[in-house]
Structures are given as structure tokens and as C-alpha cells.
Amino acid sequence: MTETRRSRVEQDHAERGARGAHRAAFVCTHILQTLRDGRPRGFLWSRDEDGAVNAYCALCDAELRRAGAEWDEAVTAFADVKLISEDEAASAAMINGVVDLRR
Ligand SMILES: [Zn+2]
Questions:
Q1: 103 CA to middle of ligand 1, Å?
Q2: Which residues face 22 on adjacent strands?
Q3: Structural domain boundaries in the chain
Q4: d(CA 73, ligand 1 centre) in Å
Q5: C-alpha 58 to ligand 1 mean position (Å)
Q6: What's the pTM?
């Protein structure tokens, strides 16, 4: 690997890291709990139209199914969605065995 190439890789890595730290992710309050206690609770995710990760746990998924896949007031209140960084979301994903949030 040449010097130039190596520094470019490092630069890419640094940029990706910075982007992840500043990029918004929306997760349910239970995933936030997972970040605090390290216990997996499920991680169902997608990216919204802005490219931000939106994720919720298995409990929320069950609530959502009960509501007929409708984010009604009860489900929304249950999920209590929080804004975190994409890096934090990636950590929670990892705890749940979801390793790749790119896409
Ligand atoms: Zn949840």
C-alpha cells in the first residue's frame, strides 16, 4: 500500500466516523435502554427519506402489530422515539447482532 493510498483510507475512515457521530438516528426508548444496559431488545430498522436510521425494538414491533401496523397514538407513546447519533444507533444494532447499518 502506498503512502497516498493509506492516508486516503485513513481519511475516509475519519470522515465516515465524523459523519456517523453527527448524523441523526431515531430510535425507540427501549433501544436507548439497550445502549445503557447492553441488553438486546431487538433492532428493526430502516432509513427514512433523509437517510436517517429509524429503529425500534421487538416490544414496539409487537405493539405495532397489535395496532395493525399503524403508528397510532398508543404505539407512538409506547415507542417514545428519541434522537441519537448514527454511531449510537450502530452500537445498539451491534448489541442486537445487526452488524451493518449501511445501505
Ligand atoms: Zn421499543
A1: 22
A2: none
A3: 25-95
A4: 14
A5: 6
A6: 0.79
| pLDDT for residue 91 | 96
Residues 31, 91 contacting (CB under 8 angstroms): no
| DSSP symbol at 18 | H
Residue 68 carries which DSSP code? T
Ligand 1 centroid, distance to 7 Cα (angstroms):
40
For 16, the grid coordinates are: 465516515
Determine the length of the chain.
Answer: 103
Residue 58 to residue 56: CA distance in whole angstroms = 7
What is the 64 CA–ligand 1 centroid distance (Å)?
10
Q: Which three cell numbers stand for residue 99?
A: 452488524
- State which H helix or E strand residue 81 sits in: none
| Chain mean position to CA 52 | 8
Residues 6+ apart with CB under 8 A from 31: 41, 43, 55, 56, 57, 89, 92
pLDDT number for residue 102: 74
